Amino acid sequence: MTDVTDRIGNVTRQRYEQLVTRAKELIAQIARSQFALGDMALEIFTDRRSS
Hints:
By secondary structure, the protein is mainly alpha-helical. It has one helix at 13-45, and strands spanning 7-8, 11-12.
């Protein structure tokens, strides 16, 4: 049986760890997406003409 000290907020420590792991994955995914979008924007709008 789960002891009260094994809870964080309203969830068990195990569920808390699962939620934190998933949140970190989503944050990493967002960061990768932002960099990919930035790279695409640079490709479109970078002035490639010689001076």
